[in-house]
Design brief:
single chain; 395 residues; alpha+beta; Nucleotidyltransferase, domain 5; 2 domains; 7-stranded antiparallel β-sheet; 5-stranded mixed β-sheet; 10 helices; 19 strands; 33% helix; 26% strand; endonuclease activity; Cas12f1-like_TNB; nuclease; DNA-binding; RNA-guided endonuclease InsQ/TnpB family protein
């Protein structure tokens, strides 16, 4: 199976002449005017002017923010030339040239990270962005390519996202679980308290704190998300497992648990975590699929009953079968069971991923340490009917 993978590469433009610097600055400032005012009569490169209209209609940007200049993919080019002294890489930026009274393009020397040089091919380039930050010009180059992912797996690694731990991953075969990314919540809480202190500080002191912080919070959180995604993909690789995760789309609109709980959950970067996990899994040649998350946190993974309670936030108790389990681990187990066909409209096999039988029987610990088959129809929810994952009979 082929999946599209998108990578954003940040390249820095350097050693610009005064003319090139002036043309970039003019294009950048004019783009801001065009984005904010639909009636403005400004001169931009024609394709860039069209992109400004799209940004204005789709994003409705705030007047106090600077928008990156969107560069259409058919107007940009990057080339490698080792014979030039100034730079090995050169990037062509479309700009409006007021001296000529028409659109033009300028070639700018660029620095490309070594690890991303293999992506610098015109057929990979998508619409990209020109950004000005701290006195330097950058191009956020979006590269899209197709990768092959496996079609057959030996296990399912289910991921439940939450407020305390950004992700809890659990194998469906033996419920071996790991808890990931508690640092994300800690970082969010730390900067929340800093912002509160800024509000109580004098104006000058608050401004100084804001300047010192910059975008450190977002960079710290993104670093933690990258590490979490890498950990989960590495776990899946060891067992040749397909990755499935609870789809948190719409949680801000569908869930209202009061101001305190909403503040904890609605500010967690679930969508970004899902994007990072999917991207890294596909790069690893592994399928990664969103699964309907609804009711997985209140349903007992073992008996399927919703006669449960969560008196303690991190635990779930089932009054039907006596289960006392980690709530996050329980949610991940339900997501995994849904992925292989239990109470799910689109079983894993319909998306092209097939769970194969392991060489040895996988077993789970049941109630009172009773050992029961992990992949029996009652426990895992396999239907053994057409459209369900391919699981052979046990030896």
């Amino acid at each position: 199976m082929l999946r599209e993978v998108t990578t954003t590469v940040r390249i820095r433009l350097h050693s610009l002449t005064q003319r090139k610097e002036s043309l970039l600055s003019r294009e950048y400032s004019t783009f801001q005017t065009a984005v904010q005012d639909a009636t403005s009569d400004v001169n931009l490169y024609s394709a860039t002017s069209q992109q400004a209209d799209k940004v204005r209609s789709n994003k409705n940007p705030r007047t106090d923010t600077m928008q990156p200049v969107v560069l259409r993919n058919d107007c940009i080019t990057i080339e490698h030339d080792e014979d030039t002294v100034l730079s090995d890489w050169w990037f062509k930026v479309p700009v409006y040239d007021p001296d000529r009274g028409q659109g033009n393009s300028i070639w700018c020397p660029a620095i490309v990270p070594d690890k991303d040089e293999s992506l610098m091919r015109d057929e990979y380039l998508s619409d990209s962005e020109l950004v000005y930050k701290n006195g330097d010009w950058y191009v956020h180059l979006v590269c899209t390519r197709s990768v092959t992912v496996n079609e057959e797996y030996n296990d399912v690694l289910a991921v439940d996202m939450g407020a305390k731990w950004i992700a809890v991953s659990t194998f469906l075969s033996d419920r071996d679980a790991e808890f990931h990314g508690k640092r994300v919540r800690d970082v969010r809480e730390h900067y929340k308290q800093l912002r509160k202190s800024i509000g109580n500080a004098k104006v000058r002191q608050g401004a100084q704190v804001i300047q010192r912080l910059g975008d450190k919070e977002s960079r710290t959180v993104e670093d933690a998300l990258h590490k979490t995604a890498n950990e989960i993909v590495a776990r899946a690789r060891k067992r040749n497992a397909v990755i499935v995760f609870g789809d948190m789309t719409g949680i801000r609109f569908d869930s209202d648990e009061g101001r305190y709980v909403n503040d904890k959950t609605h500010k967690m970067p679930f969508a970004k975590m899902a994007n990072f996990l999917t991207y890294k899994a596909h790069l690893d040649g592994r399928e990664c699929l969103p699964i309907e998350e609804y009711d997985t946190s209140v349903t007992c993974w073992r008996c399927g009953s919703q006669n449960t309670n969560r008196e303690v936030q991190g635990r779930i108790e089932c009054h039907s079968c006596g289960l006392d389990d980690s709530a996050d681990k329980n949610g991940a187990s339900n997501i995994g069971q849904r992925a292989v066909g239990k109470d799910i409209e689109s079983p894993l096999s319909t998306a092209g991923a097939v769970v194969a039988q392991p060489e040895t029987q996988i077993r789970l610990e049941g109630l009172d340490d009773e050992i029961e088959s992990a992949n029996s129809p009652d426990d895992v929810g396999l239907t053994f009917s057409e459209g369900s994952p391919r699981v052979h009979s046990w030896e």
